[in-house]
Design brief:
Blueprint (H helix, E strand, L loop, with lengths): L1 H30 L2 H4 L6 E5 L8 H8 L2 E4 L5 H4 L9 H12 L3 E8 L19 H18 L6 E6 L14 H6 L2 H13 L4 E6 L5 H16 L6 E4 L2 E3 L5 H12 L4 E10 L21 H20 L4 E6 L32 H7 L2
Parallel strand pairs: 1-2, 1-9, 2-3, 3-4, 4-5, 5-6, 6-8, 7-8, 8-9
Helix pairs in contact: 6-8, 11-12
The protein binds alpha-D-galactopyranose.
Amino acid sequence: MKKIVCYVVWIAAALLNGCGQQTSSSLEEEEKGLKDYYSDYFPIGVAVSPRALKTDEAELIKREFNSITAENAMKMGPIHPKENEYFWADADSIVAFAERNNMKMRGHTLCWHNQTPDWMFVDAQGDTVSKEVLLRRLKDHITSVASRYKGKIYAWDVVNEVISDQADEFYRQSAWYKICGEDYIAEAFRYAHEADPQALLFYNDYNEIDSLKRSKILKMVTDLKTEGVPIHGIGLQGHWAINEPSQEQLEQTLSDFAETGLELQITELDISVYPKEHSARERRPEDENDEFTAEKEQKQREVYDMCFTLFRKHQEDISSVTFWNISDRGSWLDNFPVRGRKDYPLLFDQNLEPKEVYQDVVDF
Ligand code: GLA
């Protein structure tokens, strides 16, 4: 009898053990995220809102990503609404989430022509301020923000999108440029470096796959470097689409930028399922069909696959890849270039499930 009991216990233990192993290995597979597949390559990041961190998206973020960027919370308008008033709560909560979950944190962005508070460029009478006043305001802003997150943010997009999209124009004719000339660009990097000497400082821009725009970016960052301005990297936003970039274009872009010796990061990756349009426009009848069709999906898969193949090939030069938004549940492309036209630019669907394209990105 004793022998039989022992035997039954032994079988039960063996079975349990076996099941246990099976469960833990399938769990391991289930828990594996983009960050794990890419652990030998580069961190994989995502742009987030403070709200997302309180929803079911938080679990997905923790499983899939090891770097985050604040989608809006650190931009000048939201974080510095009045000259003597900062609003820290949203940005703080994102930094705290990154710290709690051992994620890297990118800062975005210290100087940009958009989402800038109205007070920045005018005095109490509503007149345009002088260059001296504007540079002092820029310095105050950068010093406060970069000092607050010193040691917590490892890389900052210091200056965003200052290069013009017009063929015959070098710098964007923004309020910054009109008041300060190009000097504010170098100054912004100096202010950031002074506030946090350890942080890596990036110049960030879009449509860098266009050879003309790229040549302007290359000239600017090379000149900054030559002048001894503390710039460490170039951020390629990577807002791409089913029809661009071509493989040749992306290959050329990555090699051209790598030649500068600066670090490269893909900072705002998404691949729209519509052909690329660079300007906002009115809705047209053909925009009514905004289903995620098999054809759109197939094209998107090909572009994602091509991009990640090249990112891996250039892993020596690329130090991070960040997606702009979490899932197809919502992204800025639902309202740009066409307000209200649904887009599906990310790797997760509206139920937060990985799309087919996810496999293309992690199978290599
Ligand atoms: C630019 C900015 C981002 C974001 C996107 C659109 O790429 O750098 O912060 O605003 O536009 O969402």
